[in-house]
Amino acid sequence: MIEVSVTELRDVVGRELRAHGVADDDAAILIDYIVDTESAGHRTHGLRRLTGMLTATAKTPPSGPVQIRRTSPGVIALDGCGRLGVVVAQRCTDLAIDEARLGGSAMVVATGFRGSTGALGYFTRQAALRGLVALMVASCESGVAAEGGIDPALGTNPLAVSFPHDRTPITLDMATSAVSYGTLQEMAAHGIPAPPSTVVDAAGRPSCDARDALTGAQLPMAAHKGYGLALLIELLAGPMIGGKAGRSATPGSDGLVMVATRVDHFRMPNEIAEETARLLAEIRAGRRRDPDEPIRIPGERSEHARIAAERSGRVLVDELLWRDTRRRAERDE
Amino acid sequence: MIEVSVTELRDVVGRELRAHGVADDDAAILIDYIVDTESAGHRTHGLRRLTGMLTATAKTPPSGPVQIRRTSPGVIALDGCGRLGVVVAQRCTDLAIDEARLGGSAMVVATGFRGSTGALGYFTRQAALRGLVALMVASCESGVAAEGGIDPALGTNPLAVSFPHDRTPITLDMATSAVSYGTLQEMAAHGIPAPPSTVVDAAGRPSCDARDALTGAQLPMAAHKGYGLALLIELLAGPMIGGKAGRSATPGSDGLVMVATRVDHFRMPNEIAEETARLLAEIRAGRRRDPDEPIRIPGERSEHARIAAERSGRVLVDELLWRDTRRRAERDE
After folding, report:
1. Could you tell me if A224 lies within 8 Å of chain B, comparing CB atoms?
2. Cβ-contact A192, A210 below 8 angstroms
3. In this structure, are strands B105-111 and B75-79 parallel, antiparallel, or unpaired?
4. Domains of chain A, with CATH numbers?
5. 0.90 surpassed by pTM
6. How many C-alpha atoms does A115 have within 13 Å on its Cβ side?
7. pLDDT tens, B101-136?
8. CB-CB under 8 Å, B174 with A286
9. Which of B235, B266, B298 minimises the CB distance to A228?
């Protein structure tokens, strides 16, 4: 790992995006996303995704601006028109925040984007910072077997939920597969064995080789529960909104669904905040399995990392990845 | 197991409810619930819960009818006024269906009920039969440790989601603990060891004795993921709506949150149905880990069991439980 100033990270990413013809508005969204993700320590979903995004957008450049269709108050469908997943997810988030703050609740869905939507918790967290409870789910290329199956049937279909809590919302951001695809890629790159019950090879045999996930399949988290969640996310982000369902994925067919609602429909915000703080304190004060390991609140480690990055103006980035990115930015300019 | 006619099951349950002074409207809801749950094969959440319900309502009879407060269109809060959890969950469901069919979406929450809300999938399934996608979550007495913790910190906080699919909706109904409390009770009753990583004893040591869940704690499903889901459900059903949070539970402090939305905001119902059927067929046609075990769709086994029960007019009930219930109904009358 190497410590890099946030200013330099913004600059290098910005140059690389401009060199690939990414529009300024889109680039601004992508830079913010990568800086936050690296600050928060979500390294599998940050700078490492930049090359993939640029490849996706180089293959099929956007056909125009994001198209917005409001079917009824608080219900909005976006066609990404080939813009990048992170850009479209940000547009979803901005619209969901505006609609939910105005009308109480919102559902915003999207298809027609290219490449990954990134870490969904980045988006739900923004809504929670504005006093909303938010849920976001997305479908992606099939790589996960059904419970009892062998063939890749569903995407790793992540789910994120955020709940307001001052400046440090509570955020759960998880794949419905046993291990996220990004983590498996890291394991494969570093020769680390995949944990048991996470991967099967092409013949359906349990495997500890993370690379087998590509030729075989990933397994769902918690057996039938993760499979059930993945299938329901596939239905929401697929048949319900016109995204891909199952193995019929083509670029631009992934789907995204965000739901947000004001947290204060039923009680005053200060009552909610007090009860939330009391619950978190009670959980933290419980006995620990390992006395040296604090009991953590979902998203807490990332919130601490963000605060540290903001104070120091510096983030820790994978050294090899950083050198590669900087070299490419210089070469491409 | 013993085969019992649905008519006799309805009759026996009805007599036992009347004998305990349960109001006719509430009794009708409870009878339907128990018959459906037994028909569907959800035996830990059906007739077995009747005694617990009657104990809960005997301790503190309802103080009046369910109070309904509509804070804005599609947003409703119920105070159960001490009525039973299943009765209040049914009222939530009826209101959510009406509001969502009228306005597109609904959020209905409840506190102030006594005893268990039952199997949440029973309620979300009703919404799916009316063309709605529905999510229901509930908090319950703390019994599950936080990830890295030992003390019971959160409820088993179940989650159910249903998606429309003709007469057989797709329903996921799961506890966020590794194993549901009902299943652990069954294991304890039959001396079956609890699976690994599901229970810790009072000293926080891993245990295979399901009875230790009572003095120690249950563990969340899928480690930090289940813990995160349980905590977010606790926040929604607790601080957000005025239900209990953490260990401060008192009778009537559990919370319930239901969200429902029309499935056809973005596409025609027939398009959604076709794509859904295609996805399910594709999943079922995949290679199987065990050639003799079909790949199942969440809720499918229960739907088949319901159809069989409806055709035959008979259900399979635990024999001992059935004799006990009938004896009590005769004695109490």
Report:
1. yes
2. yes
3. parallel
4. 1-59+303-333 (1.10.1530.10), 68-171+220-265 (3.30.1370.60)
5. yes
6. 26
7. 999 999 999 999 999 999 999 999 999 999 999 999
8. no
9. B298
